[in-house]
Amino acid sequence: MPPKRNPKILIVLHQELSSPGRVGHLLIEGGFDLDIRRPPLGDPLPDTLEHHAGAVVFGGPMSANDKDEFVRRETDWLAVPLKEDKPFLGICLGAQMLVNHLGGKVEGHQDGLVEIGWYPIRPTEAGEELLQWPEMVYQFHREGFSLPQGATLLAGAEAYPNQAFRYGANAWGIQFHAELTRAMMQRWVVRGAQRFTLPGAQQGRDHLGGRFIWDMHLKRWLIEFLDLIFHSPRRHPDEADGR
Fold first, then answer.
1. Among residues 170, 175, 165, which one has the least CA distance to residue 64?
2. What is the pTM of this model?
3. Going along the chain, which residue ranges are E strands?
4. CA–CA gap between residue 18 and residue 34 (Å, rounded)
5. What are the tens digits of pLDDT across the range 19-67?
């Protein structure tokens, strides 16, 4: 009898060297295999998620409003998890694509403010009913999104009021980044240093220093959040390993 295969999660990345980071680590530890696709490099997206347990669309340096073919293709593809009611998580760009797909708006702050560094968020009553949220999260974006019609806001913030939402039973979007390992954050700080002069951005030393204070809480939240969305086959909520 052949060994039982782990359920697969579709992972959508947007650069050649991009990584699913901590999200990938936790999904694998939770009993899933990863099916990684990179649409900007020509990888196709499946016509159905019949053979997947869900999907995660990650961030990237592009805008959800860009006219690139792969951006339009990915945004249109989101009809697949929505129609099939499969667990879906959009992170930053992925959440913004979901908002555009649902008829919302993705745009920058009216005063040009960005969120690049660690910023406080506030869960809504609906968010608090689901799980305990961290006080601070890591951000790296110049655009935010409106709340799509029919969506439930789960967390907000001052400059960008829509930080996390749920649409229907199984579609989720978050503006912030809980997936970064320490090595990933160091790369982002080096490669994104030119953005630290933008209004509202924090300096690189504050990105790395804040990690020592707040990352443990952010990771604990991520473990519970992924369990909530994907129902990991093997995962105990206190299995935080400090990665």
1. 175
2. 0.93
3. 8-12, 33-37, 54-57, 88-91, 106-108, 115-120, 122-123, 136-141, 143-145, 151-156, 164-167, 171-174
4. 14
5. 999 999 999 999 999 999 999 999 999 999 999 999 999 999 999 999 9
In whole angstroms, give the CA distance from residue 224 to residue 243: 15
Q: Which residues contact 136 (CB under 8 A, 6 or more apart)?
A: 118, 119, 120, 121, 210, 213, 214, 217, 218
Structure tokens, 151: 């969506």
Tokens of 169: 């039973």
Distance of alpha carbon 127 from alpha carbon 121, whole angstroms = 11
Cα gap 151→166, rounded to integer Å? 6
Asked if pLDDT for residue 119 goes beyond 80, the answer is yes
Q: How many CB atoms lie within 10 A of CB 236?
A: 10
> In the numeric block, which tokens belong to residue 221?
């939240």
